[in-house]
Amino acid sequence: MRLTLRQQRDRASLYLLFCLFVLLPLTAVFGHRGVAPWLLLASIPAFLRGDFWQSAYGALFDRMNLREPYFVGFAAIMFFCFWIFLSGFWSPKHQYTLALYILAPVLVGGSVVWFSLNLTRAWIYRLSIAFAASVAAGMAVLLFEGLTGGILRAVLPPHDPSPDRAKDIFALASGVSALVPSLIPAAIIASMLVGRAAGLGLLALGAAAAASNNIMANIVAILAGLAVAYAAVKAPNRTLTATGWAIIAGLMLAPLAAFIPVEAAYQRIGDAAPSSWLHRLSIWQSVASRIPEGLPFGFGADFTRIWERTAPMIDVPGAPVPMSVIANHPHNLFLQTWLELGLPGVASFALFIYCGMRLLRRANLSPNVVAAIIGAVVAFLATMMVDGSLWQVWRFASIALAAMGAGLGYSIGRALKG
Length: 418
Hints:
74% helix; 1% strand; mainly alpha
């Protein structure tokens, strides 16, 4: 039977995505920053469809009502990006283009989620299997690299001259970070299509990959994501509301980090904790202490990188040399928002989270889908609280990838009911 033009288009779109899912594990292992262009390529099937523009943005402008969380949430994130652009005028680096680092993952991520929600029944299963298999393959190769000291990366240029190939190993840990938000959605898809054992096996594989690459933030992120995902399966609406308000509260209370007793912590646990952990305490305390100076508008996008050049040095227990009280970013998403974007950035970010929470509650999603969403968000934020930056576009691409997985999980549940 001859395929219609629409069927040919849909088949070409799915073949493109299958190819991309083959490449995703290699991207995580050999170049975690490549997750951002990977996501851009994955958005092509949606962006080339007229019904995407009509249903996604047409629905948005049909709901231009300040009581409508879909419209207000979109307006909040757009204002957040616009404020980043404006802050470039008073930022020491005049970084006007950094707004795209947030705007692009939002728009592109929205397109892949839309695509995952608008598939025919046959393609839903095939693409969902490809998503889960791709995440599993990525974690498997990252586990292999962690156990072998990065043997695959060692055979490819450029050569890493750092002691014990530290740059390569850190890059592998970042590859794990790029897949961590997608781990729980992928495990839920595996559970729905294959069985609970497959989902648990995928979670165990991800945890092993995180442990083998020796970055505690990834392990904590997986455990935190699993905890809230488990709670969401038992009580989805309650967990969703509690998580949303906890995120907003964490954002609002972030400046209290100024009261971290750094010196006392150094004296009490200096010999028992890694120097990188102790250095984080100093960074957070220094950033939080400087926040009031920049209010109400903040110091501007990427201010921290300029501050680092003149920041004082301190002795951190376990560190071989003195270290700056600030790194090239605050290693905390909430503190960075306060410091660089001020009250407008904080308020628009909080409003976006609040509207997202209301939208998800109103959607009356199944416990599995709520678990996938909340688990991915919490895992993502766990890494962003200790290691991430607003200006690492690959991290925001990683949560957009996870959102695609949650969308596929929703579509599978709908197909199984129908």
